[in-house]
Amino acid sequence: MTAWLTENVLVITVVEPGCRTLQVKPHLGDLEWVEGTFPTPHGVVRVRHERLPNGEIGSQIDVPKEVKIIR
């Protein structure tokens, strides 16, 4: 279940070997919010996506300093 959540809802994808660059593109479907973690060699990435009142998705992403996030 955890791998499915990361791959299909949080949508965290490794872009660069060693997890130095990750892409995050949430797909909440009918969910109001989702949160999870993604382990990297540099530490844990913590992600929370939440549907805002205007229908857009707001994201809070906490990453180790060695990791770059692209959207």
* Helical proportion, percent range: 10-25%
- Count of discrete alpha- or pi-helical segments spanning 4 or more residues: 1
CATH superfamily: Maltose phosphorylase, domain 3
What is the arithmetic mean of pLDDT?
A: 92
Major sheet: 3 strands, mixed
Q: What portion of residues belong to β-strands? A: over 45%
Order of strands, main sheet, comes to: 1-2-6
Oligomer: single chain
Q: Low-confidence runs (pLDDT<50, min 5 residues)?
A: none
Using the coordinates shown, work out and report the CATH topology: Maltose phosphorylase, domain 3
N- and C-termini, Cα separation: 24 Å
Pattern of helices and strands: HEEEEEE
Q: What is the level 1 CATH name?
A: Mainly Beta
The appropriate CATH architecture is: Sandwich
Radius of gyration: 12 Å
Instruction: Tell me, briefly, the overall form.
Output: elongated
How many distinct domains?
1
Strand segment tally: 6
Task: State the secondary-structure class.
Answer: mainly beta
Give a nutshell description of this structure.
By secondary structure, the chain is mainly β. It has one domain (2-70): Sandwich (Maltose phosphorylase, domain 3), CATH 2.60.420.10.
Care to describe what's here?
The chain has 71 residues and is mainly beta. The protein has one domain: Maltose phosphorylase, domain 3. It is 13% helix and 49% strand. The protein contains 1 helix and 6 strands; from the N terminus they run αββββββ. The strands form 2 sheets. The chain has a 3-stranded mixed beta sheet with strand order 1-2-6. The protein has a 3-stranded antiparallel beta sheet with strand order 3-4-5, covered by helices on one side. A hairpin with a 2-residue loop joins β3 and β4. The protein starts with a helix and ends with a strand. The model has no long low-confidence stretch (mean pLDDT 92).
